[in-house]
Fold each of these.
Amino acid sequence: MPACSVLLILKIISLKIRIILFFCFTVLLSAILISACKKNDVPVDDGTYNPTYINFTIPAGWPAPATDIFVNNRLTEEGFQLGKKLFYDGRLSKDGNFPCASCHQQFAAFATYDHDFSHGFDNSFTTRNAPGLFNLAWMTKFHWDGGVNHIEVQPLAPITTQNEMAETIENVLNKLKADTDYPRMFKSAFGNSNINSQQMLKALAQFMGTIVSSNSKYDKVQRGEASFTASEQNGYNLFKAKCETCHKEPLFTDNSFRNNGLAVNSFLNDFGRMRISNDKNDSLKFKVPSLRNVVLTFPYMHDGRIYSIGQAIDHYRTGIITTQPTLDPLLVNRIAITNTEKNDLIYFLNTLTDTTMTKAARFAQ
Amino acid sequence: MKTIYPSLFCFAVILMAGCQKSINEEMQTGTLKVTFKNTVKGNQMALNSGNYSNQHGEQYTISKFKYYISNISVTGVPIVPNSLYFLVDEGNPASLSFSFDVPVNKYHAVSFTLGVDSTRNVSGAQTGALDPLNDMFWTWSSGYIMTKMEGTSPQSTVVNNKVEYHIGGFAGANNVLKTISLTIPVSTISPVEIREGKTSEVFIEADFDKWWQGTYDLKIAGNPAVTHPGALAKSISDNYAGMFSIVDIKNY
C-alpha cells in the first residue's frame, strides 16, 4: 500500500503546500469517486433529474396485472408525456404519414375506426385488424397471434413492418436526435439525453400501458353508481351464461387463444398462433379480444370480416364452421341465442363503451 | 491537522473499494483478453469473398456471421456480470475481442453461454449488445436470434439463392441456448497464467463448418433458410455447439 510513502512525503513538506495539496487532493478525490461509481445503464444524476413519479392505479375489484410492466420502467409524468409525443409523431414512420395514432385512434378506443385493415406506407394494407389499445397492463402477449411477449418490444413490429410504418429504428432515432424537443424530453424522463431504442420503447410503454378503460356504464353499475335497464340486465345475464368463459370480466377477455370457427381467408391464409408456436394444435387460433368498447372497435375478428355486433352474434349462433379440428370445444354446438336475447345482448354490449377514456385529454394529442 | 491526510486517504480507499463491482480490491488481478477467431475448416473466414463447400459438396459464401456470448467463466470463476452480453460479429473486428480483470492464477478451462438467456428474451426493451438495432431480435415473435449466418449458395432454392440461418428459441424443447465448456489442451498449449498487471490472451476458434454436421445432417438444398425457432433450429444449434475450441494462449 502506498499510504506510508504518502505520509512520509507529507511530513517533509511545509504547511502552505499541505493546504494547497489538501484542496487538490479533495478535488481529485471527488473526481475519482464520481468516475468510479458511474455506471453506464443508470441515469446520470447531475442534479437536474427530478421527475414526477406517478402511480399506476388498479381499478377497484380488478385483478393485479399478471406482470408488473412498470417494474423496470418506473412511471413518471415526463416518461408518459414523452411516450405520448412519440405515439402521435409521424416521424416514427418512413414518410412521416403514419404515427402509431394513424391506426390507433382515441375516439375508436385506439383501434382503426370502420376499417377491416388499416392503411400503411405506400398505399399498403395491414393483414390483420388493428386492435384497440387499452388495459394493456393486464396483457402478457400482444398481437392476434400473441407473438410479442412484452409491451416494450411491441412497437418494433409496426415501426419496421413494410406495410405499416416501414421505417428502421436507426432512422427513427436519428430523426428524434435532430429534433429540438426530444433531447430535453428524454433527459427529463430518464435523467439522460441518450435517445436510444430502449428509452424510446420504455416511454411508449408508459403511455400505452397506462391507458385504462374502466369507466363504462357497466363499470358504474358494478360500483353502484348507475343501474342497467331491463334489456341491458337481461343481456348481462345472458352474457354471463353464454359468453363469459372467453370474454372474462372485468377485462372481458381471458387473454387466451382460440379458434372460433371462421373460414380461412384464402387471400391471407392466416393460421394465427400456429405461426408463433409451430404447433398444429394452434392452427386458426387467435387471441380472444376484449369486448370493452366493442361498439367502437368494429369491424370484428382478426381480419375485420364482420362489420356489426349483430352479425358477430350471428356467427356464434349459426356461422361457426364446426368441422375444423382445432375449433374451440365450447363452440362445437355453436351458441343458442334467440332473436330477443340477441337484442338484449347488444343492449348490454353497448354499456361497455367508455367515453371517459375515448375523450380523455390526457391521452389526446 | 496532521492526522487528516491519512484518514482522508483511508476514506478514499474504502469508498473506492465500495464502488468496485466484481473483483475484491485486495485480490491481485491481471487482464484476460478473449479473442474469437471465426474460421471455416480452420481457415480464417472471409466474408463475401470466401468460397466454401459443405460435406454434400454444396458451395456457399458467407456475408454475415454473428453470435451472442455471455456468462464467461475461467475454471469455474465467473469473470463478467450475468447482465453483460457480447455480440461477436465477424463484420465488426472490434467485436471479436473483449478484456476482463481476472484474479491472478493459472486457468485450464474457459466456459461461456452461447445465446441470450430466457429472462432477457421476455423482459422488454434491452440496450447495449442486446439493442434491437443490432438486428438480432425478432419483432414479430419476440426473442433474440442467438446466432446468425447469411450468405448465398447455388444450391439454394429461395430468392436470390439466399442462405439464411437465424437460430433462436429460448423456451421448452426448442431452446437453443448452449453452455460451451472448453478445456485448454495443456499438452500442446500452456495454461492461462494471469499475473498481476499483465495481460493473457485466449484465442477461441469458431469453425462454421461444424454447423453442417454433428448430430444433424444439414443440407442447403433441403433447408436454405431457417429463420424461426423450432425443431430444425434446435438441431442446427446441437451441431454448432461443437464449433468452438481453444487454439492458442498468449501470456504477455
Amino acid sequence: MTWVNAIVQGILLGGVYALFACGLSLVFGVLRIVNLAHGDLTVLAAFLAVVVTGAFGVPPVVALVVVVPVLAALGYVLQRTLLQRSLAAGELAPLLVTFGLSIVIQNALLQVFSADTRTLPTGAFGTASLAIGGDLAVGWLALITLLVAVAVLAGLQFVLARTALGRSMRATSDDPETAQLMGLDDRRVHAAATAIALGTVALAGIFYGMRGTFTPTLGPQLLIFAFEAVIIGGLGSLWGTLLGGLVLGMAQTLGAQIQPSYGVLAGHLVFLLVLAVRPQGLLRTASRR
Amino acid sequence: MTVLDVRGLDAHYGHLQALFGIDLTLDDGETLAVIGANGAGKTTLLRAVMGQVPADGGILLGGTSLAGLRPHERVRAGVTMVPEGRKLFPSLSVAETLQVGAAPGAWDLDAVYELFPNIPLLRGRPAGALSGGEQQAVAIGRGLMANPRVLLLDEVSLGLAPVVVGRLYEALATIGKAGLTMIVVEQDVGQALSLAGRVHCLRAGRTVLTAAAGDVTAADVTSAYFGGGV
C-alpha cells in the first residue's frame, strides 16, 4: 500500500510541476526562448502573495486576484522591452538576458525579504485531506493544485487550438517573417504569449507557496523541475507537459519511497533516461517539424 | 488612378546594393509582370515594398507613403505578398491558414473556395501536407483573404508542373478580372505576358525594359533580361 500511496502522492506532486512547466513550455513554443528566469519569476509571485496576504489579511487564494494580473502585466512589459530586443540579437542573447534577469530577481528578493524561509498561510485547509479508501488519503490542497494544473493546461490548449489568438501564436512560432506578411504583429503576439505564461507562473508560485516552503534562491531549482517536466513530455506539447510533470512527480515520490534522499535524484535519472531513449519526449513524434 | 507608386527605389543587403533607382507605377485593377533572371532583384523589389528589406526612395500606396511602417502595418495599409516558396505554416490547417490574416472584404472563405474548388475538401488537413500546386493555391488564397488593394505574387510557378501552373494562372486571371491590382514576379515569360497588361524587366537591379504586354514578344523580354537590349 505504501507504493500505491507513493504513486498517488507522485501524481499530486506532478500537478505542481505541470503548473510550473506550462509557462516555460508556452514561452519556448511561441517565442523560441528558454526563459532561465522562469523559476525566479515563480518565486517572485510567491513573495508578492506574501505581501498581499500580509497587507490585506486575505488568504493566498484571494491574493491570486492581484498577483496573476500583476505578473501577466510584467510579462507583457518584459517582452516588449527586454526580450524582444534580445530576440533580434541572435539566439544566445535571450538566454543571457533571462539568466541576468534570474540573478537580478534573486538578489532583489534577498534584499527585500532576507534569506528567511517562507510559506503562504493556508490554515486548516492546508492539512485537510480526503480519504480515498484503504489507508490512502490525498490532501485537498494537493488535489486542487492538480485540478488547477489540468484546467490551466486544458485552457491553454483550447486557446492555442481554437482561438484567433492561438492561431496567430502558432503562425508566428512557425515563421515570424511570413506571419508579418499576413498582417500579424509578431511583437504583440509574443507579448500576449509572455503575459499568459507569466499569469500561469503566478498560479504556480502561489500554489507552490501554499504547499511548501520557499526562499529567494529557490528559483533555479524550480526551473530545473519545470525544464525536466517539459523535456520529458516533449517540447511544444502541452499535454506532454502535464504527462511530464506527472512522470517527474511519480519518479520523485517512488525514489523517496526507496530511500528518502533518493527522491530528487530519481527524478533527474528519469529525465536523463528520457533524453537518452526518447529525446523528442514522450508525447511528441520525432518527425513533426 | 495610380494605386502603387514606387520612385527611385534603392535596396541594399549589407554592402551589396540589390536595386538601383527603380521607378514603377501601378494603376487600379492593373496587373504588372516583373520579369528577370535569378538575382535580378525581383524578389528584393517585392520585399522592399513590404518593408522586409531596408530601402531608400519613395513607396506610396494610394498616395500615402509606406516609409517607416513595419511589414504588418503595410498589410493593414493595403498591400500583401504571396511569398516565394509558399511559406505555409506547418502547424496550421488549410482553413486556419486562410483565416490567419483575414480582413473584411470581397475575398472571404466562400470566394476563395469558389476560386479553388478542390481546397474546401482539404480544409482540415495540415497545410504542409498538400501537393505543391495545392499549397500554392492555399498561399494565394491566404493573400486574398487579407483583401489587399495590391497583391504581390512571387514566383507562383516555381517548382510546379506546367499543367498545374496553367491552372494557377487561370485563377490569377479570374482574380485580375475581379478587379484586384497585382504585381506578378515570374521567370516564365510566356505565362507572365499572357496575364499581365504591362511588363517591367529587371537586370542586375536595374530597369531594362518597361512596356505594354501587347507591344513586346516573349523573345524581346528574354533578350532584354539576358542583356541583349530591345
Amino acid sequence: MTLVSIKNLTRVFDVSKPWLNRVIERLPKRMLTAVSDVSFDIEERSVYALVGESGSGKSTIGKMVVGLLKPTEGTVEIDGTDLMKASGSEIDRIRSDIQMIFQDPFASLNPRWKVRNIITEPVAARGGDTKGLAEKLLEQVGLSAQDAGKFPHEFSGGQRQRICVARALASEPRLIVCDEPTSALDVSVQAQVLNLMSDLRDEFGLTYLFISHDLTVVQHMADRIGVLYLGRLVEEATPDELFSNPQHPYTKMLIEAAPKMDGYGREVTPPQGEIPDPINPPTGCAYHPRCPIAIARCSAERPPLATKGKGRVACFRAGEMT
Amino acid sequence: MTDFPQPDAVKQAQDPGRMSRLWASDFAYAFRRSPVAIGATAVVLVLVLAAIFAPLIAPHDPFNPATLNLMNGFTPPGTPNAFTGDTFWLGTDDQGRDVFSTILYGLRISLFVGFSAVLLALIIGVTLGLIAGYAGGWAETIIMRVADVQLTFPAILVAMLIFGVAKGITPPEYRNQMAIWVLIIAIGLSDWVQFARVVRGATLVEKNKEYVQAARLIGRTGPAIMLRHILPNVLSPVLVIATISLALAIIAEATLSFLGVGAPPTQPSLGTLIRIGQGFLFSGEWWILLFPSITLLALALAVNLMGDWLRDALNPRLK
Amino acid sequence: MNTPVLSVDALSVEIPTRHGLLKPVDQVSWDIAKGEILGVVGESGAGKSMTGNAVIGLLDRPARISGGQVRLNGTRIDNLTPAQMRKVRGKQIGMVFQDPLTSLNPLLTIGDQLSETIETHLAVGRTEARKRAIAALDEVGIPAAKDRIDSYPFEFSGGMRQRVVIALALCAEPSLIIADEPTTALDVSVQAQVIALLKRICRERGAAVMLITHDMGVIAETADRVAVMYAGRLAEIGPVAQVLGAPRHPYTHGLMGATPLASKGRKRLAQIPGAMPRLGALPNGCAFHPRCPKAQDKCKSDPRPTVQDGAGRAACWFPMEDA
C-alpha cells in the first residue's frame, strides 16, 4: 500500500534582494527552483531514501512532506489526503502520523527544557495523556527512565539523537522523515543510531523517508533510493540495482567518486566540473555540461523520468555509459 | 537582581539541589573569582536593602511634618544643632529634614522608578522583538522602523516629551500623585528599543534552529512557540541589557527630576534632592548636595559594573 | 633510511582547568617520511586536531605542550619562540583547514595573498612572485588561472576555494603539509577532486602530508599509513591496508564493523557500546577498556604503550587475531 504519494512537486524560492535595493540597483527578481517536478511514491513499512549533493533539494522535499513548507506546485498526499487541502481535524490526525528527525542533535532539542517535556510535547500539544510516556520511550531508545529529569546539555550527541527519536515516536506516527539523521555523529555512534532506527521500524511498522548525502548509509538503510540532482529526480531504483547497474551517468559518477573503505590506493579519475548555480540551471538535462556521454538533444530537452526495468531514470542515453 | 529570572535559575527551576548546582556552575565560579562583580553586587545589595527597609533604618520620617523641627534647618554633618542640640550624621536641609533619611527615602523612589521603568521597557521590548523576529514581514518592518525613528532622538528628550504630554492631559489635582507613574511610563517608553532589537536578533537565530521546526511540525501555534520555546532561550542577553538599562533609567529619572519635570519635592527622589541641594552649594551648605550625589553615583556605577560583568560572563564567545 | 620530514616523539598536550589537568594529547609518537601521506583518524574528541595544532605551534591558550618533541627535518620546533615558529610555519609547513573561507582574507584578491606569501618566503620580486602565483593556481587545477588571479575569494565556489587554499599552502614550497579535515565541507564529487589533487601534489613535490579526518573512506583511498587515535592516545598505527583490513586494536576493529559497507549488505552493523569518554573523566588504564569486548583486569589498571606489531604498532594487551 502506498502511504505517501508525491506528484509533480515543485518549490521555488524568491532569493531576490530587498525591494528597495532591487529598484535602486535595477536588478531583476531572482528565483531559485529548489525542487522541480518531482514525483514518487513511498510504500507503507518501507524505507525510501533521497540521496544527493548540496543543492539537490532533498531537504526541501522533506520539509514539504511534513508540511513545514508549502509546495509551489504539485501535491503531497499522505494516506490519500493532501495536507494543504485538508480540514482542521484531518490535519490534526495527519500531523500525529508524521514526525521528523533532524540533522543537528544540538539544535533540535530546546536547551531550556527537560527531556521529559521535550519527548512528550507532541502528545501534550494535543492534550493527550503523557503520564509515564517519556520514561517508556526513553527505555525503548536505549536510555534510562531517570534521564527524563535531565536537560539536553547533559547528553552526548548520540544520546541526544536517541532523545530525538523518542520524541518522534511519542505520537505513534506512521511516517518519520529523517533529514541526515547521522551526518553529525561519529561512526561508532552512527552505527548505534542506524541499528536503533532499523529495530524500531520492525517493531512499530514504521515508514521512513531517509534523506542523506552518504551513499553507504543510504545503501545500508533503504528499500528504494531516489537520486536527486539540482532539484530533479534523475533515477530511482532498489539499492541492489542502483549500485550494481546505475543507469544515469550522474548516479554512476556519484557511486564512483564516493570514497571506499576498502579502496586502498585506489586511483580515481575525479569527476569533471562542479554543481552549477541553481538560480541559472543548465537547459535541458541539468547534468549535461558535466556528462561524458551528452548529445545535442540533452541540452535542448529535459529528459522525462521513464520506467526502465524495475526502476525509473531520466536520461536519453540511460544505461549507455560503461 | 531578584526581579529578573537568572538563566541558571530558569534552567534549574524545580530541581532539588538547585542551589548547590548553581554554586558549582561556571557562572557562579566566574562570579566568585571577580572582585569587581562581588564589590558591585555588594554595593547594589546594600543600597536596595536600605531602600526597602528605609522606614526601619531612617532616624526620622522626612515626609511627616509633625516630626520636623524648622529650628534644625541647615545643621552641618556630625555637629550638634546650635538651638536644639540634635546631631545629624549627614546634616539637615533648609527645612530641618535629616539628609540621611531623605536619601534613604529618595533611594526608594529612584529604585522603584528605575526597576518599574525597566520592567515596562522589558515587557514592551521583548514582546515586540519576539513578534518582529518570529513573524517577520510587515510586522517586523513596522516595529523596527518605529524603533529606528525613536533611536534618532535622545532618550531623555523622548521621556520629556512623553512626560509633557502626560502632564497636559492629567487633571491638576492628581498631578503630584501621578508624577511617579508618568515618570515610569516616560522612561519605560523611551527605553524599549534596545530590548526589541536584541530580542529580534536572538529570535532570528533561534527560530531557524531545528527544535523550533520540531514544535511547528507538531502543530504548535506561533504564540506558543514564541513564549514556550524561543523566549527562554533569548533571556540571557535580555538580562544583561536590563541591568545596564537599570543604571540608565536611574540616571534618566535623576535627570528629569533634576530638571524639575520628575518626582515632586513632596516625594523627592535622588534627582530631586540633588536639584534642591545645588541651590545651597554656594551658600556653604555643601552636604545637602554632596551626599545624595555620592549615593546616586555609587548606585549607577555599581549597577553598570554588574551589567558589564554579566555581559562578559554570559557571552559564550569570550569564554 | 633518511631523516623523516616530521618526527613526533611522545608528544603530550595539557590544558589546566578548574576541574583539574586535562590531557587531550597523551604520549603520541609517529614519523612521516618524504612523499608519504599519514592519515590521522579518530572520532570527535580523539585529539587529532589538537595534535595537528601542537605540531604547528598553534595551540590556543591555556593548552600547552607538556612533554615530548616535534622535529621537522631533524630540527626541534616545539621549543621555538612564536616569532621563529611563524617563519617555520609559512616556509616549511603548509596548512589546509576544513573551512576554506577562514583561511583566505576576504578583502584581498587571491593573487595578492599568493604573491605576498611567495615574496615573504622565497625572496623573489613582485613580477616573479606573480608568475609563480599563476603557476601555483595552474598546478591545483584552477581553469584560466591568468584571468582569475585578480578575483576575490567570494567569487570562487567552495571546491575552487579549497584549491586556492592548497595553492596557498604549497606556494612557499613546504616540506610538510598539514591538512585538517580538508574535504569535510565539500560534496562527494568535489571531494574526489581535492583528494586526487592532494595525492598528486604529494607524489610530484615529495612533500610529507599529515591528513587529519574522521572519514575512514577518505583515509583508505588517500593515506599510505594510518594512525588511529582514541581519547588523546595513539591506539594503532601502520600501513593503511593492514590497519583497516586486519586491525589489531579492538577499537579500530569496532570502527570498521560500525561503518556501513557495500560488501556487508544490509546486515546489522556491529556496535561499539557507549561513547568516547570526556577528557575530564578518562578511565584508568586503557581509555578504551569500558567499551572493549576483550578487556581484562589488566586493561583497567595499566595502559599499554604502543608496541611493534608486524609493520605497525598497536597499544593493546590483547590485540585482535588475524581473521
Amino acid sequence: MNLQIITPDKQVFAGEVVAVTFPGSEGQFQVLDNHAPLVSTLGLGSLVVEEAGAIKQSFSIDGGVVEVLNNNVLVLAESVVA
Amino acid sequence: MPSLKEVRNRITSVNSTQQITKAMKMVAAAKLRRAQDNITRMRPYAQKLSQMLATVSSGSEAGSQNPYKQERDVQRVLFVVITSDRGLCGGFNANVVKAANALLADKYAAQAAKNNVEIMSIGKKGAEAFTRRGFSVNTAHTDVFLSLSFDKVKAAGEEIMADFKAGKFDVVEVIYNEFKNVATQIVRAEQLLPMASDKTNTSKAVSAAANYSFEPSEEQIIDELIPKALKMQLYKAVLDSNASEHGARMTAMDKATENAQDLLKQLRLEYNRSRQAAITKEILEIVGGAEALAGK
C-alpha cells in the first residue's frame, strides 16, 4: 500500500510500505494492506513504518489525522521528526 | 549651472545608490523564489486537509456546534494585520494599513469608537503604524518573519483561537497581501473567526463518507480538524504575504534602478556640457590673450 506523510512545510515520506503503526488517540493500531476505509485522529507518539524487507523507520509526531482509503494511507501532521 | 565638481559628486552618489537598489532587487528575487517554494510545499497539506474535512463533515451534521463557528454579538474585534518587517517595498505595507483602516471605518466603526478593537501585528511595519495611531497592539507574534516556519504561525494561531474561545474577541479578521504574481499583490481581508459554515460541495464526498469508519467519532475528528484548518488559513496568509513582500520589493527596486539610470543620463549630459563650456571658455581666454600680445 502507498503511504504519504505530509506536514505544512514538506512531504516527510512517500512510498510503498507493508505496515504502518499509528499512535491513535484511542490507542495504538496498525494498518496493513487492504485495510477498510478509516479516518482517525492521532495522538502524540511515534509512527512506525515498515517497508518491504522488514526495514523499519520511525517518526515522532505531535498528533494529526490519518485517512485510509483504497490502499492509500495519508497522514497529516503538524510537526514530524524523523 | 552647478560646478563640475558638484555634478561629479552627484554622479558618484547616484551611482552607488543604483548599485544598492540593484543588489536589493536581486536579493528580493532570490527570496521570492524561496517564498514561492514555501507556498508550493504547503499546498498539498492544505488541499488534503480541506478534502478530509469535507469528507468527514459531509456524513453528518457534526461540527456545526463547534466553538469556532459560534456567531456572537460583535463586541470586541481582533485584526490580524500581516505586513513586512522592512520597508522599501513600494506601497506594500501602506496598502495593508489602509485596507485595515477602511475595514475598521466601514464595518466596525461602533466597536472602534468604544476602543474595542485590538490589532495583532505579524510583521514590524504594521505594529509601528498602528501603535502610532494609538491602537492597542499585540506584538507577541510580530517577529514571525525573522525565521518563517509553521511552528511560529501555529503559536499565533493557537493564541487567537484560545482568545476567541474564551470570548475575548467575537470576530477575528485577517488583513494581508495575497500573492497574485510577481508584480501584483491584492490586499485581502478575510474573516478567520467565527469560521464560515462550509458551503463546500459536499455532495461529491457523501458517497465515499458512507463507508468510512471513524475513530474516535466524527465530531471529535472534526473538532481536531477545524483548528488545523484555521491554522492553515493563517499560515497561507502569512506565506502569501511573504511572497508578496518580496515581489513588491523587487518591483520597487527595479523601478528605483531604472530611475537612477535616467538620472545618471541627465547628470552625465549636464557634466559634459559644463565641461565643454569650461574648455571653450579657456580657449577663448588663450586666444584673446594671444591676440592681445600679437597686437603689441
